[in-house]
């Protein structure tokens, strides 16, 4: 009943929506808010997706978030936000339905994307409390804010949401910053004695180049032991009339390997990166390419895989770490390279249609995908091909 009511409410207010804008972040710093004290904004995203790993319609793709259902037409997200701002207080609530929140949001808060209230404690400084979207990452959900609708493997393993307090300074100057006291890594509610602490800082140069650093220090409790994780994210965004570029690098360390307590003095590591390049070839048509890389040694962030490896190579950080086969089996995280090629058609400033094809390649011993093609059908493979078409529209009034 709640889902039907929410769908009816949002459908009355919004059409089908999408957008591009990862590098709009740099431009948004320069804009002045002209909204009335209370206003609504809405967004919707519809997709068709097909994956090489299954022929069955409706099957959820491995690590699927955007367009997760194979051979299906689906709804990524449908959301409606109510916003209130005056000189001293502000607040926001965003309700959502669709495949994206179903896949990654906790079940008890699946319909809530954001819900917070805040008070001004300085001329341009705010203290907010509640539920937020993550402050970490080069890409962010929903797809309206990115150059591509699909997200890179590194983004998939970043936190998507967070709950707690945030202290932010919002100015039109070159530098903006924030401090976050949170319930944990990708958590709305607290389950550890020690809260997570994160910061973010953004520096804009000439309105075209933007540098961003974010981090999160959290206690990932393992067997009732303190287990420190330090998540670092570096982003570089550049935009001019024809080109937009986004580079993201994540470096994550963890005090104890999550799946082998005997390695308690051993620091685990995750490295992930992406480079998205967009060229506005024609007035309404742009082309985008995104190479990506993700390396998770033992499944700290990604789903653990049982793979063969050489224990003598345990101190290696290089990507060749898990290429030997000695008969010793331990949990292993995803080690993946990939490339996405896409095209975007914008018929209106608040609308787009995108078509994207993506190729993912795990290390040779990480055969996590079902092969559905021809004589190879029914076998396991370390490669996957995706085709995702998305379209949408949003309003902001």
Describe the structure.
This protein is mainly beta. It has one domain (2-396): Porin (Beta Barrel). The chain is built from four helices and 20 strands. The strands form three sheets. The chain has a 16-stranded antiparallel barrel with strand order 1-2-3-4-5-6-7-8-9-10-11-12-13-16-17-20. It has a two-stranded antiparallel ribbon with strand order 14-15. Strand 2 (72-85) and strand 3 form a beta hairpin. The two termini are 28 Å apart. 38% of the residues are buried. Residues 1-32 and 307-329 have low confidence and may be disordered.
List strands and helices in order, with pairings.
Elements: H1 2-13, H2 24-28, E1 38-51, E2 72-85, E3 89-97, H3 99-104, E4 112-120, E5 125-133, H4 153-156, E6 161-169, E7 175-182, E8 196-205, E9 209-219, E10 228-239, E11 243-254, E12 268-279, E13 285-296, E14 305-308, E15 329-332, E16 335-348, E17 351-362, E18 369-370, E19 380-381, E20 383-396
Antiparallel strand pairs: 1-2, 1-20, 2-3, 3-4, 4-5, 5-6, 6-7, 7-8, 8-9, 9-10, 10-11, 11-12, 12-13, 13-16, 14-15, 16-17, 17-20, 18-19
Low-confidence stretches: 1-32, 307-329
Helix-strand pattern: HHEEEHEEHEEEEEEEEEEEEEEE
Overall geometric form: globular
User: Within the CATH hierarchy, at the fold level, what is the topology?
Assistant: Porin
Helix content: under 10%
Class from secondary-structure proportions: mainly beta
CATH architecture: Beta Barrel
Classified by CATH, the class is Mainly Beta
